[in-house]
Design a protein that fits this description.
Strand content: under 5%
Largest sheet: 2 strands, antiparallel
Oligomer: single chain
Strand order of the largest sheet: 1-2
Helix content: over 70%
Length: 199
């Protein structure tokens, strides 16, 4: 290859890589740049949701549209097919602030939360008391497992775990800690949705 062309190609590739690196560094180290990007994203999202609220939700109350039209409008406004228009309408009826976030939380917990569209109810299979009990149990289990891992890392031997290789025991305990942390996250989501859940 001609040395001039190889020099041009290497300069172009270096400039492309440095442009990408520069934008990443700007995003990391310049909070104003990050703020502007986030502001533009939220402004666009808010405009789409407000337009949906005015043009679809309010107009549907006056002159009902077909389910197909409502679902297609919902898909277009939120940019995804994951939201059921009935759930969005239910959240609008309940005067919820962050409709998209709440809809994602409700649909991500489909094992524990059921939505009854006919009766306009959101139900959880766990009661308030059980959510609190499970949260306390998981917190105690989390700290118990973490203390075992910490004590093993500083050299303490647990009598029941002597027969196993230490690395396997610690890896198993870390997996258990991550599982317990995930359960705590799920319980925290249920706690944040508590005022929306009909008991």
């Amino acid at each position: 290859m001609n040395p001039i062309w190889s020099a041009v190609i290497s300069i172009l590739s270096i400039s492309a890589i440095s442009a990408m690196l520069l934008s990443v560094l700007k995003y990391i180290f310049l909070p104003h740049y990050r703020l502007e990007i986030n502001r533009k994203k939220h402004k666009d999202d808010a405009a789409a949701v407000l337009k949906y609220y005015e043009n679809v939700y309010k107009q549907n109350k006056e002159s009902p549209k077909s389910k197909f039209e409502l679902q297609k409008s919902t898909n277009a406004a939120f940019g995804t097919t994951q939201f059921n228009y009935e759930l969005i309408f239910m959240l609008f009826d309940r005067d919820e602030r962050d409709v998209e976030i709440r809809a994602k939380q409700i649909q991500s917990r489909w094992l524990l939360i059921t939505v009854d569209y006919v009766n306009q109810k959101i139900k959880c299979c766990l009661s308030k008391k059980w959510i609190n009990r499970l949260a306390v149990f998981n917190i105690l289990l989390y700290f118990g497992l973490a203390s075992i891992v910490l004590s093993m890392s500083i050299g303490y031997e647990w009598y029941g775990l002597r027969n196993f290789k230490e690395i396997y025991v610690i890896l198993t305990l870390f997996l258990l800690i991550l599982t317990v942390a995930y359960f705590l996250y799920v319980l925290g989501t249920l706690k944040s949705l508590e005022r929306l859940i009909d008991r």
